[in-house]
Amino acid sequence: MPGKEIKLTDTPAEVVLRDNSGGDGIGGKATLWRTENAIKVLFCAVDNDIISYGKKYNEPLWKGDTVEIFLTLGRRNRYLELEVNPDGAGYATFVENRNGEFELEFIDEPPFKWEARRTEYGYECRFEIPFSTLKAIGFDENEAYFNLYMQDYTAGGLRLYAMAPTMCGSFHRPEAFVKLAVE
Questions:
Q1: Cα atoms in the Cβ-side hemisphere of radius 13 Å centred on 163
Q2: What is the rounded distance in angstroms from the CA atom of residue 23 to the CA atom of residue 110?
Q3: What is d(CA 98, CA 48) in angstroms, rounded to the nearest whole number?
């Protein structure tokens, strides 16, 4: 698990997506960096049994394999949830989380760019989140917290992976988010 802070610079930093319950499993890795205009994240998901759900923006992608970014908007219990599935469908919502009870507000126009492709080991998804868009919706780089996730449906059930594991069956745990130091 990473420390309590990840420095976001123009030099790519790699993190491992570990079993969300604290076990030994690894679901893949993510590389993150910034350009002058955007936050960029590349997920490399290890998945030999891809189960993808949804083909269009804001369909319920979480019913299948996805990679996800949760990024706070001004305070820890309000965050942006971004998802992409192996078939290249995207999803974006604002989440207001009140002690595990949360409200979703779907975003009509995608606040990020993405692409996905299948690979010999699973799939890759690239996210590009413009700073201008983030600032317009309440992102404060001085108070930024985030987490990166992967969910993997298999014949045996659902496996969850995270950069900073939440130690439970949900990703919606802002207390597990890691400080994002934008440099």
A1: 31
A2: 34
A3: 36
Q: How many Å apart are CA 58 and CA 124, to the nearest integer?
A: 19
Compute φ and ψ for 40, nearest 5 degrees.
Answer: -125, 140
Alpha carbons 38 and 127: distance in angstroms, whole number: 10
CA distances from 18 to 25, 43, 59, 79, 107 (A): 6, 13, 26, 22, 29
Residue type at 29?
A: K
- Residue 38: name the closest of 112, 127, 133, 131 by CA: 131
pTM greater than 0.90 (yes/no): yes
- Among 98, 60, 58, 62, CA closest to 78: 98
Closest to 171 measured CA to CA, from 153, 146, 134 = 146
Q: Tokens 């985030």 — which residue?
A: 146
172-181 burial by CB neighbour count: b if 16+ within 10 A, else e? Answer: bbbebbbebe
Amino acid at 36: E
For the stretch 94-144, pLDDT in tens is: 999 998 899 999 999 999 999 999 999 999 999 999 999 999 999 999 999
Q: Which residue, among 15, 49, 19, 53, has the nearest Cα to 33 in the 3D structure?
A: 15
